């Protein structure tokens, strides 16, 4: 019988099997070794602020966390990256869309910049429509620009990237801006 490993994140204990821990750690992902806790990071931050937060079942198609406060409920999609990674990676679905079922006013992406110092994690709370627009515009520019040796980029590529340095100015107003969820 495989042992369970307990990892504490913001005072919340996450359970994973020893095999999962070893596998993720061996892939050089120290900031994301406990891959089952990524949604819990955001939920813990919301709970610290007195907001009710519930995790969606794994692989829910449209959101990771539901949060409610003062009669308003929002859907939250969570994306993480490690300190070493220059940006967040998204995968487009078969239809080319990154996000399913985008709602206009109650749908957010929280981009988490993971670090080994969990007291200083960076959370960017952004309306999903905004992130979707950024990803679509960037992908269009990428497809239209020449690739290596002047070859065209593949318009069927499913990878979408949001680079921290490139979006530093746009991201700034969303850094730890938890109040945007309730405006």
From TrEMBL:
Gene Ontology terms, MF aspect: nucleic acid binding
Gene3D superfamilies hit by this protein: 3.40.1350.10
Protein name, UniProt field: PD(D/E)XK endonuclease domain-containing protein
């Amino acid at each position: 019988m495989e042992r369970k490993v307990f990892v504490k994140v913001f005072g919340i204990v996450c359970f994973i099997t020893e095999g999962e821990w070893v596998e993720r750690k061996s892939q050089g992902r120290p900031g994301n070794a406990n891959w089952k806790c990524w949604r819990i990071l955001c939920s813990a931050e919301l709970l610290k602020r007195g907001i009710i937060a519930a995790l969606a079942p794994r692989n829910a198609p449209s959101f990771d966390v539901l949060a409610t406060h003062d009669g308003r409920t929002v859907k939250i999609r969570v994306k993480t990256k490690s300190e070493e990674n220059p940006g967040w990676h998204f995968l487009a679905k078969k239809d080319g869309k990154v996000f399913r079922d985008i709602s206009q006013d109650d749908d957010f992406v929280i981009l988490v910049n993971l670090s080994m110092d969990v007291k200083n994690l960076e959370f960017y709370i952004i309306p999903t429509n905004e992130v979707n627009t950024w990803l679509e515009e960037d992908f269009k520019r990428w497809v239209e620009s020449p690739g290596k040796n002047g070859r065209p980029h593949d318009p069927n590529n499913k990878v979408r990237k949001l680079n921290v340095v490139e979006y530093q100015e746009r991201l700034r107003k969303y850094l730890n801006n938890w109040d945007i969820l309730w405006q």
